[in-house]
Amino acid sequence: MSFDRKIKIAPSILAADFANFGAECEAIEAQGADWVHVDVMDGHFVPNITFGPATCAAIRPHIKGVMDVHLMIAPVDSYIEAFAKAGADVITAHVEAGPHTHRTLQAIRAAGAKAGLALNPGTPASEVEYFLDMVDLICVMTVNPGFGGQKFIHSQIEKVKQLRAMIGDRPIHIEIDGGVDPITAPLVAQAGADVLVAGSAVFKGGSVSNPGPYGENIRNIRAAAEGVWA
Ligand code: DX5
Ligand code: ZN
Fold first, then answer.
1. Which residue's CA is minimally distant from atom 10 of ligand 1?
2. 68 lines ligand 1 (CB under 6 A)
3. Does residue 211 have its Cβ closer than 6 Å to ligand 1?
């Protein structure tokens, strides 16, 4: 996984057909997705349950590129090894998931994955200050985690700007998760984000048997973020 700040579109399979993850991953990659974003929820840290490491391992062979695993679970440390073994390239844990974020980030890198740190909308940018040399990605939640299809929270744009300034030349991605569409994508791209997660805005109108809309949706988000409408 090489580092660059080009816009990367990461469809969230939370909005895919849960009975058909393998084919959905192949379809979004064929339609231009850069990363595949995988939302793991435990019904405890967030009020929704999705799936765990076995499902991640099952979909891994269907993903050629980056498998970006977003852990909305607490506790998190005891599951890191399992998600790394399942083939996650990036493992993102929440700073709010427990008191020992430093240890969590160490464990992710020790397991051989890139380390991501996610911030809920109410958590300030300053929370990452002492982790800047231990993270490969900072995920700014632009909705309250737990569900797809929610409204983008505009107050988070200022947080993205602050994080971009704090990061400086360090090779750290800024990822945006929640409510990303062609209207909100340029706002966060201008503020300094490079990885745009999008669930409903990518999967709407398409299916594995009709994947063309996935491609059109991805191109529209990318073009908007890059400042050129398709
Ligand atoms: C929310 C998840 C997101 C979600 C985004 O808890 O982390 O990845 O799928 O969905 P949209 O793009 O529909 O807001
Ligand atoms: Zn997510």
1. 148
2. no
3. no
pLDDT digits (tens, 9 = 90+) for 149-167: 999 999 999 999 999 999 9
Encode pLDDT of 93-119 as tens digits. 999 999 999 999 999 999 999 999 999
> Residue 157: CB within 6 Å of ligand 1?
no
**Mean pLDDT, residues 108-137 taken together:** 98
What does the pLDDT average to over 17-36?
A: 98
- The CB of 199 under 6 Å from ligand 1? The reply is yes
pTM for the model stands at: 0.98
Q: In the 3-class helix/strand/coil scheme, how is the chain assigned residue by residue?
A: CCCCCCCEEEEEHHHCCHHHHHHHHHHHHHCCCCEEEEEEEECCCCCCECCCHHHHHHHHHHCCCEEEEEEECCCCHHHHHHHHHCCCCEEEEEHHHCCCHHHHHHHHHHCCCEEEEEECCCCCHHHHHHHCCCCCEEEEECCCCCCCCCCCCCCHHHHHHHHHHHHCCCCCEEEEECCCCCCCHHHHHHHCCCEEEECHHHHCCCECCECHHHHHHHHHHHHHHCCCCC
CA of residue 227 to ligand 2 center, whole Å? 24
Mean pLDDT of 77-99: 98
- What topology is assigned to 8-226 in CATH? TIM Barrel (3.20.20)
Ligand 1: residue of 177, 183, 195 to mutate (most ligand atoms within 8 A of CB) is 177
Please report, for the chain, the start and end positions of each structural domain, with discontinuous segments joined by +: 8-226
